[in-house]
Amino acid sequence: RAKADGRGTFCFFRDEMAATVEARRILELDLRKALANEEFELFYQPLVNLKSGKITTCEALLRWNHPVRGTVSPIDIIPVAEDMGLIVDLGRWILRRACMECMKWPEGVSVAVNFSPQQFHQRDVLSEIRYALEVSGLPAHRLEIEITESSLLRNTQLTHDILSQLHALGVRISLDDFGTGYSSLSYLHNFPMQKVKIDRSFLEGIDSDRPLTLLRGVARLSADLGMAVVVEGIETNEQLELISADGTVTEGQGYLFSRPVPAVRVRQLLNASHGRRIPDDQIALVSS
Ligand code: C2E
Ligand code: MG
Ligand code: MG
Ligand code: MG
């Protein structure tokens, strides 16, 4: 194949590949140091009950304050950390930090933590979670674990067992980004999960009939199966009105309510609102 493409082309690709490999090697080296150097930070984004306007949960979202590159997105960090086998250490840090942070919030507010498939399928995931609750003192019912459909694909029986044990422990499971993956509707009733987060791609073109019907159908189905329903990525009042209209969607999350903000800021927000509706001036504050 290289021969057919001609020597020049081959060299071009080889150099480019070498550059990519080198960049990747540097990223991995940096990532290894980042935990020890305390370059990771958790931001938090509220989930709001659509009826009461109260913040029910804040989702922890990873940020990497790289000394040279600046803020690095979790989308660039998590897959590399998975490949490197660093996800277990990183995930442990995220979980414990998030549980400790939640202890500083009003009692009615929970914390949601994202688990990547590898992290979810690590051998001692249950002891990891139990231990994080123990060291932080956080009651299990204030922890929500967000998994994606890809975590449900492998080893179905084992996955089912883990979810059941988490449920027995009192931890809630939330199915994140629903509708982006394989979207087998059977997941919704085959696995014990308490919440579905409908992906924000469902909001695209929501002002026309078909997408709205689709979103409402998925929401209705999830609600009928006894799950709480969240819509992610709400950015406008029009979107909020459309999804609130039939009362099926229980919570909303998105820039309209608040962007993900640093821990100090979410603490201020929660204490200012004392579990009440986010005051309008605070919405302006956190979404700016
Ligand atoms: P996710 O769990 O679905 O989180 C929601 C993402 O959508 C966040 O991006 C959030 O900032 C963004 N978002 C929230 N509201 C809006 C909105 O109204 N409009 C738009 N356009 N975007 C909105 P972020 O923080 O960059 O995280 C991206 C993904 O990285 C997350 O998607 C999650 O899959 C992953 N991730 C983030 N933190 C962690 C973590 O601690 N552990 C693991 N395993 N994955 C994480
Ligand atoms: Mg999430
Ligand atoms: Mg999500
Ligand atoms: Mg998403």
TrEMBL record:
Residue span, EAL domain: 24-274
Name by which UniProt lists this protein: Diguanylate cyclase/phosphodiesterase
Source organism of this protein record: Bradyrhizobium sacchari
Lineage per the UniProt record: Bacteria, Pseudomonadati, Pseudomonadota, Alphaproteobacteria, Hyphomicrobiales
